[in-house]
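Support request, please re-run this one:
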Amino acid sequence: MLKLLVTIPNGSIKDSFVPYEVRERLEKLFDVTYNEGTEHYSETELKTLLMGKDVVLTGWGTPKLTEHVLAGNDTLKIIAHVGGSVAAIVDDYVYEKGIRVLSGNEIYAESVAEACIAYALTALRRIPDYLAVTRAGGWRAEDSLWEGLLGQTVGLVSYGMITKHFVRMLQPFSPKIKVYSSHLDEAELKKNHMEKASLAEIFATCKVISIHSALTEKTYHMIDEPLLQSIQDGAVLINTARGGVIDEAALVKELKKGRFRAVLDVYEQEPLPPEHPLRSMQNVYPIPHMGGPTYDRRKVVTQRLADDILRIQGGESPELEISRSYAVHMTK
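Re-run finished. Output below.
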């Protein structure tokens, strides 16, 4: 029986990813050691506890599994991370040692894609605005404006796992989809009824613009003031990627003009400061970084990671593996 260390400390995070029914299953499949404290392990504690373990189940806040932490460890075979990006958990040394890396990235991606559908519909139909009017005793005016997603032109900035799920979910709305990406082939474009476009074209021509780029040195403030100025009146900008991909100061400046709406799930500083102007603008729907996974999907992440551990043990290919080449492009 494989020896599994769960590093997530006691608390609400652990309760959501490892609820009773998941804990029960893990204990049937593996020889499990839990972090029974309320704090994350230190590097020294983690190094000691990993000795003799075959698998480690990590969460947000677990120390990075570096050469120092793994020094002298010849048993660890699998790192299963309940988060999405593994950039804060593993480095090249992990891959050099031949340790397999799994994460909930795909499950997160599908949930965030679902959020993008919800955010687009919310902003186009202006649901929060009309809810506020009705709750205040009013009604919609004769000249009220609200729109739908059907047949709209949707621009996607970057084409990764989230975007693939988003495109699949968009199909029933029959949109015209434009994608900014350097690695899309013609077969993928044709299959999903998409066309390649430059950033400039997407921002100038699309009714819905959705940001999906990982945050790297190259993409920091990639969405700059000239691009934001080119957004058409009445458009909707959605960001579920990372706040730093957009120049937030330039975004605030442009949103103050009231020309377009924004649904923002991420920010350059989180939590968003109480006095930040994005909190009070009527054309901004500020979401406190909860695009995905939704709470009910957290236990699914752990269950599917357990499935993949068993697949690896049985010589099969796992479904949630993060390759070295993919990991280097993930947000740190």
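The longest helix spans residues 105-125. The chain has 14 helices and twelve strands.
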